[in-house]
Structures are given as C-alpha cells and as structure tokens.
C-alpha cells in the first residue's frame, strides 16, 4: 500500500493510470541516484507521493512550508523537485507524454513543424526591475513569454525574458533550441514580429521560417 492510499486523497493526486506513465522514468532515475544525498539516510521515499506533493503545490500555489503534513517533508519534496528540474527529468516526462499524444492521434512521435509566438505581460510591483523591460510596440512594462508549439498546439519550448527583448531576438534563441531539442522540425510559422535575422538564422539551422501576417 502506498502512502497516498493511507490518507484521504487530494483532487490533484495522480491516478493509477497517470502514475503508470511516470513510474518507469522516476524509478530508473532513482536507481541511478541511489548513492546521492537524497538517499544517504537509508530511507526510501515514495516517489509517487513526491510527485503528488509537487502537483498539489502546482495546483494550489501554497508556499513549500505550507505543504500538508500527510505528504513527505517539504524539504524532501523540494530536494527531489530541484534535482528533477536540474537534470531535465520533469522535461523528459513531458516529452514522453507529448510523443504519446501525437501517436494517439495518428501523428509521428516527433514533430516536423512548429509555431512560434510571444506575449508581453505586465508584472507585479514586487518583481525585480532588472528582470523587466518595456515592450515599445505594445507599451507594456514587464516580461515577455515566448513559446513554441507543434501543429497540435502541444507545448515544445518556453522562454521568459524582459519585455524589452524583441520577438526577433527571442525567436533566434528559440530556433536554436528547437533545432537542438527537436531536430526533425524543418518548418516554423511566425508572425510579422519576426524579421529577416530570424528567418536567416532558421535557414542556417535547416528550418524554413514562414512569416504569416
């Protein structure tokens, strides 16, 4: 019996089916990390409960210290979350699910085309000023979120910058990451915010950047 079966469930808890998709990756990760600091005390942490705790935090937005006591200690959960973020384990889980969804609708597991766009958003007064900027075109003071999705709308990449970073500059960085992370992509659709430099950079990477007004 897992820890989640010994307590009252939360709406954010993983179902058995969802856990079955994640379990092989996380178990393999732990096998490789048995001698790390996360396991020096000899205790075996329930990885499903760690993921349940992360999902609870993500859904509710509570601070780490406010994690309910029927989860593993917040320091333990944060330790796993930090490790999984640093070595891209969470990203690998996302990519695995992404491939599954594409195959379920009859597409190839890896995308061959993508869409790139950006949005400038206002930030709170508490946000450090050195991470903000002004989007001159949209008169927005804050940050810019640039994303890449496949033709199904499934998320491939996200990049957050100061709003003063141009779409063109952000697009160049995103195209480089797309080429590295998804080498099967040869086509990208963008809007008119992406100029000649982004188009030429895409061509150097083997990606045809098509500007759609």
UniProtKB/TrEMBL annotation:
InterPro entries documented for this protein: IS402-like_dom, Transposase_11
Pfam families linked to this entry: DDE_Tnp_1, DUF4096
Upper lineage: Bacteria, Bacillati, Actinomycetota, Actinomycetes, Kitasatosporales
Residue ranges occupied by any Insertion element IS402-like domain in the UniProt entry: 14-93
Entry superkingdom: Bacteria
Sequence ranges assigned to domain Transposase IS4-like in this UniProt record: 111-199
Organism in which the protein naturally occurs: Streptomyces rhizosphaericus
UniProt feature coiled coil, ranges: none
UniProt cross-references to NCBIfam families, sorted A to Z: transpos_IS5_3 (NF033580)
Protein's name in the database: Transposase
């Amino acid at each position: 019996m897992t820890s989640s079966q010994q307590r009252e469930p939360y709406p954010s808890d993983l179902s058995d089916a969802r856990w079955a998709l994640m379990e092989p990756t996380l178990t393999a990760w732990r096998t490789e990390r048995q001698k790390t600091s996360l396991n020096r005390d000899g205790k075996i942490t329930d990885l499903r409960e760690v993921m349940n705790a992360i999902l609870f935090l993500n859904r509710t937005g509570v601070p780490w210290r406010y994690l309910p006591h029927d989860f593993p200690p917040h320091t333990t959960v944060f330790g796993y979350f930090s490790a999984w973020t640093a070595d891209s384990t969470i990203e690998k889980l996302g990519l695995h699910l992404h491939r599954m969804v594409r195959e379920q609708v009859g597409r190839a597991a890896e995308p061959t085309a993508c869409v790139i766009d950006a949005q400038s958003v206002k930030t709170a007064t508490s946000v450090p000023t050195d991470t903000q900027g002004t989007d001159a075109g949209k008169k927005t003071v804050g940050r810019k979120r640039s994303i890449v999705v496949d033709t199904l709308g499934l998320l491939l990449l996200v990049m957050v910058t100061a709003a003063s970073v141009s779409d063109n500059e952000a697009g160049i960085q995103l195209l480089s990451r797309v080429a590295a992370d998804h080498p099967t992509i040869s086509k990208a659709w963008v809007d008119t915010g992406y100029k000649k430099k982004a188009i030429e950079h895409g061509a150097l990477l083997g990606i045809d950047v098509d500007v759609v007004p």
